Structures are given as C-alpha cells and as structure tokens.
Amino acid sequence: MFNTQTMKKYSFIVVLLPILFFVACTSTFNWREVRLDEEQYLALFPAKNAFEQQTIRFEEHRLTMTMAAAKAGDILFAIGTIPIDAKTVSGEALVQWMRLNTAKLIKESATPQIIQFEIKTAGSPVQILPAQGYNLKGLGPDGNYRIYWVRWVTRTNQSGQSRIYQLSAIKSFKSVPSANEQKQIIEQFETFMSGFHPY
User: Fold this and answer.
1) What is the pTM (predicted TM-score) of this model?
2) How confident is the model over 79-104, as a mean pLDDT?
C-alpha cells in the first residue's frame, strides 16, 4: 500500500485507493453499457460500478473528481470526471500535471511515452476527440508489479461546460506475469477503453 508521503505526493491519483475497499470484485467479466447522465458519458463496465468523490488540489484550485469504478478478475476499472471552469482553470495544464505525476507511479527502465488516441462522442453527429495516455507496466511504489493504462480526454459540451475525463485500468501482481497473462489482461483493458464515449 502507498505510504502517507507517497499519497500526498500523488494525491490526484490515489483517488483510486479508497474505492478499492468498497467495490465488489467478481471473477467473471460481464460487460454492460452504463449511461451516466450527470457525468455526461457512456461506458462499458465489467461489473456493477460504485461511486466515490475526492477533492484534487491543483495550483490554487480545489477540484472535485467523481469516480465510477468496477472490479472484475482483480482488475480495477475506473473513470474519473473533473468539471472545470475553463475561464479559471487550464484544462491543458491540468492534464499535463496529471500526466507528469502518473509517469512517476510505475518504475520502468525507459521513460514512458505518451500515446495519442481518438475517442468518439456518443450521439449524432459523432465527433472525434483527441486523447492521450500511457500504457505502463512495472513496479509501483509499494513494490508490486502492475499493468496500468490511463487515458485523458477533455470535452466541452454544447452548453459550454468543460470536463476532463481520466480512464484507468490497473492490475497488480506479486510477480511479473507471463506473456499469456498479459495478453488476457490487455484484452480486457482494450474493451474498457474502447467503450467510453462522452456526450
């Protein structure tokens, strides 16, 4: 488990930790489409999802992240939504801050490379939104081996409300998993990531 110093240093990412304790885990993947109107997105979750809210401190701002998460096969799948006022908070700067800190969470032999993605919106007409993220694997601060994928996308709806979404899929191991194990995990990660569509 992360110690107190680590949790403070990476306060924006440890919002995943509290939700681990009350998200029920199932051994099977029963993918279902979930519509969250308040958070303005459609998503695929492999089990019943739970919710948690945490406060993120970014510069002089206190931002609320609402997490929706589900756990299956000991994999945690989570989507965090951060509403921002684009007049006072730079979405680009916030994502960069989250990105730089996330890169420090997994010890890799090489510097992690940002991957660029495209995400389709829900509804019609469909819009293509740019997204970015990491596919990380290696040792975490607690010494456990993890495969951790994370994506960020910013969406401003027709009313002018901006939201930053963080998609996370994380699996922990006591030792380095085999190539076959990693392949099976990645298939589930890809299903989750491809099922996300903001309004």
Assistant:
1) 0.86
2) 90
